[in-house]
Design a protein that fits this description.
By secondary structure, the chain is an alpha/beta fold. The protein is built from four helices and twelve strands, in the order E-H-E-H-E-H-E-E-E-E-H-E-E-E-E-E. Strands 3-2-1-11-12 form a five-stranded mixed beta sheet. Strands 4-5-8-10-9 form a five-stranded mixed beta sheet, with no helix packed on it. It has a two-stranded antiparallel sheet with strand order 6-7. A hairpin with a 2-residue loop joins strand 6 and strand 7. The longest helix is centred in the N-terminal third of the chain and has 8 residues. It starts with a strand and ends in an 8-residue tail after the last strand.
Length: about 180
């Protein structure tokens, strides 16, 4: 029997970084989705150790080991909501090469990507769905805050979507 409410934790661009804050906020999620640049098999293992379903795509920095356990793109449905996730997606109005055809072929209600390290959630009338980039949960990159997104799916609707700030990307020593 399907669950009435499915709790989702969505992150991207960990670049091999996993810490107790990430684990804390993802604990209790029914599913964890990672939008690429996992960085290391230890991150996949850490997500799996939370005893939940994990959906992951690989990113441009991921090596053969990570790629062998993940996908370039994923398409799935939960409670009638169609999802599509890949790593390099661009953004509404400036999608990466091949993304328009991916959206046209799959007609998702929600398109998820990472890569830019820029947190963004917005409706995109060009494909009639919701665009989500959870920002970056890792320490590498130009982002100042590490983020992930949590939300629920209840009766075929997304609700309770919120951003979790995991802290600053890096804390510099005052002597540097």
């Amino acid at each position: 029997m399907p669950k009435d409410t499915v709790h989702i934790g969505l992150l991207s661009d960990t670049h091999g970084h996993w810490d107790d804050r990430i684990a804390h906020y993802l604990a209790g999620c029914d599913e964890i989705w990672h939008a690429g640049d996992v960085g290391d098999l230890s991150v996949l293992d850490a997500m799996r150790n939370l005893n939940t379903k994990v959906r992951t795509v690989f990113g441009n920095i991921d090596d053969y080991q990570v790629r062998s356990e993940t996908n370039d793109a994923l398409h799935w449905e939960i409670q009638g909501i169609r999802f599509c996730m890949t790593h390099i997606g661009g953004r509404p109005g400036r999608y990466a090469k091949g993304i328009r055809s991916l959206l046209d072929a799959n007609r998702p209600d929600v398109f998820i990507c990472g890569h830019s390290h820029l947190l963004k959630v917005q409706k995109d009338p060009s494909f009639g769905g919701l665009y989500i980039n959870p920002g970056a949960a890792g320490m590498h990159g130009f982002h100042s805050k590490r983020t992930l997104i949590k939300f629920s799916i209840t009766q075929g609707k997304i609700d309770d979507m919120h951003v979790v700030e995991l802290g600053d990307r890096a804390v510099r020593s005052p002597n540097k």
